[in-house]
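Customer escalation, tier 2.

The customer says the design service returned an amino acid string that "doesn't look like it belongs to this structure." They asked us to rerun it and document both sides in this ticket. The original structure tokens are below, unchanged.
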């Protein structure tokens, strides 16, 4: 099913409808969703997220970049990270997924769902609770410049008491990326307090961070919400 307009235009249309008819935004969104053939706005947003163009990140990245990929659950951040790894593999680059969220089998199933057939050399999948900054840098030591690694996800890196605070780990990763030319991307959650009505796409202030990260930790960021993707340079 093809939407009549990009998701951000449909969201704007819903806001105008809500204001014009003095009805709650969720009711306006439900009407727009019905016009597009969906029984609920959440289904329309999921459809838009699933079909969003997520294959264009790699050309915007440079060796040594630290990339943040952030969204609320179900808005495509993991899919975007996996697509980035597949694009890197297609170009012949080394690509590695460090997953604290999915098993190796689950990750491979998601790769298969994104690419048929898979690249001749598939991304490496590391799925262990031992993942932390030191583990990642040791594993990637000696990798050629332009290697791409994705960490799934940022907030779990310091879940074990034996690992350093998140801020220290991010500094280690940032230094490693700059010194080696490896591209590191970290998938991140957005705080539940984020209100789409206030901003169509979240930003750095909306990150869910029990432990703060140092300013300037990431060089680039990609924020997603309801099918809208916003890429930006942070330095």
């Amino acid at each position: 099913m093809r939407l009549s307009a990009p998701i951000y235009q449909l969201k704007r249309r819903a806001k105008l409808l809500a204001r014009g008819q003095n009805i709650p935004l969720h009711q306006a969104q439900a009407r727009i969703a019905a016009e597009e053939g969906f029984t609920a706005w959440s289904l329309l947003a999921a459809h838009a997220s699933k079909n969003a163009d997520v294959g264009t990140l790699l050309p915007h990245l440079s060796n040594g970049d630290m990339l943040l990929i952030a969204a609320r659950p179900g808005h495509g951040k993991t899919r975007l990270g996996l697509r980035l790894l597949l694009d890197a593999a297609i170009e012949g680059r080394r690509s590695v997924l460090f997953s604290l969220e999915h098993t190796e089998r689950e990750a491979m199933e998601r790769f298969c769902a994104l690419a048929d057939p898979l690249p001749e050399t598939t991304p490496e999948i590391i799925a262990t609770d031992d993942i932390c900054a030191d583990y990642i840098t040791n594993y990637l030591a000696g990798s050629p410049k332009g290697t791409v690694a994705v960490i799934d996800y940022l907030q779990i890196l310091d879940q074990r008491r034996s690992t350093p605070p998140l801020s220290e780990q991010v500094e280690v990763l940032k230094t490693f990326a700059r010194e080696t030319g490896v591209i590191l991307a970290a998938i991140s959650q957005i705080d539940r307090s984020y209100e789409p009505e206030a901003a169509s796409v979240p930003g750095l202030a909306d990150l869910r961070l029990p432990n703060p990260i140092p300013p300037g930790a990431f060089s680039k960021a990609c924020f997603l919400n309801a099918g809208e993707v916003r890429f930006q340079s942070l330095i």
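Tier 2 assessment: The sequence is consistent with the input. The radius of gyration is 19 Å. Strands lie at 66-71, 95-99, 124-127, 148-152, 183-189, 220-225, 228-233. Sent an explanation to the customer and offered a walkthrough call.
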